[in-house]
Write a structure and sequence with these properties.
73 residues; 2 helices; elongated
Length: 73
């Protein structure tokens, strides 16, 4: 329960920071030239993959791990 609460509280911050960086990447691509556009494309894909990992993959891993009970020895 505490993991779900923490994840739900952090989700908005995670998405907000990634979307802000994606907007910056768009501005760099729009106003930049040459290598700056290349950096903007790399930044866009890096942040997109990072957002997917943070939202989908991490949540899935925690949900799977939640099903396992640790043995008290």
């Amino acid at each position: 329960a505490s993991i779900d609460a923490g994840y739900n509280r952090a989700l908005l911050t995670i998405v907000d920071s990634h979307v802000t960086t994606l907007i910056t990447a768009g501005a760099l691509f729009l106003f930049g030239s040459g290598p700056i556009k290349g950096f903007a494309v790399s930044l866009f894909w890096g942040v997109t993959i990072s957002l997917y990992t943070a939202v989908v993959i991490t949540k899935t891993i925690f949900d799977i791990r939640k099903g396992y009970k640790s043995l008290s020895i």
